[in-house]
Amino acid sequence: MKSAIIIQHLNFEDLGTLKEVLIQRNYNIQIIDATYTNLNEIDPTTADLMVILGGPISAFDEKKYPFIEDELRLITKRLQTNKKTLGICLGAQLIARVLGASVYPMGHLEIGFNCLQLSEDGLKSCLEPLSAEIPVLHWHGEQFDIPKGARHLAGSTLCANQAFSVGNTVLALQFHLEADPDRIEQWLVGHAAELNMASIDPRDLRRQSSLHANALKAVAPTIISSWLDLPTS
């Protein structure tokens, strides 16, 4: 049986639609909550897969949230292996930071369902199914630069850098491919204060989620399966 370590920051920002894929592929899934687990006791080098999920804090917030320092050390050790590592939203920003790239505020929020524009590399990558103009969920106010040596895979009208990869082992996604449309209410309640401050009506997001649910639930497993099938050497 393969093993997967999942680093989580919020209970509802979990594996979502990707969980069943890993179960079907015979992964033993270990969920680690970064906010209270002693990350220094975790060996990030042994698992076949590591996934670092999202959260509503900054990749440079270690003065406010000291556990980020431990998480950065964990990711640094992980990236020294030749094993699959996936970062989503905050997870992608942390990977970018470890790889020496800047992470910074965009000056605006990107919240809602919108399509991506894939680069030439993106069209040749596991993200190719999204070229069919399937909107994905965006929920962030910061973005990363593309690390040196990485391939830029996608952008959006509000965020130029939405995805990058390093070889076949590291995939970083600013957007929320994993978000389960059937559980969008957890996001709407969990981030209610942010939505209110941004004057975003949750009813609009609920309608968008319902409209794109079938396509998203079909494409997310396909993308991750394609990436997992890529050889690591």
Could you explain the architecture of this structure?
- This protein is of the alpha/beta class.
- It has a single domain, classed as Rossmann fold.
- Helix content is 31%, strand content 25%.
- It has seven helices and ten strands.
- Strands 2-1-3-4-10-9-8-6 form an eight-stranded mixed β-sheet.
- A hairpin with a 7-residue loop joins β8 and β9.
- α2 packs across α3.
- The longest helix has 28 residues, at 202-229.
- The model has no long low-confidence stretch (mean pLDDT 97).
What Rg do the Cα atoms give?
16 Å
User: Can you identify the CATH superfamily?
Assistant: Class I glutamine amidotransferase (GATase) domain
Biggest sheet, spatial arrangement of strands: 2-1-3-4-10-9-8-6
Number of strands: 10
Question: Fraction of residues in helices?
Answer: 25-40%
**CATH architecture descriptor text:** 3-Layer(aba) Sandwich
Q: Can you write the helix and strand succession as a string?
A: EHEEHEHEEHEEEEHHH
Largest sheet: 8 strands, mixed
> What sort of overall outline do the alpha carbons produce when their principal axes are compared?
globular
| Number of structural domains | 1
Q: Tell me the β content.
A: 25-35%
Residue-averaged pLDDT: 97
For the record, the CATH class is Alpha Beta
SS content category: alpha/beta
The CATH topology is given as Rossmann fold
Alpha plus pi helix count: 7
How far apart the termini lie comes to 20 Å
- Residue windows where pLDDT falls under 50 for at least 5 positions: none
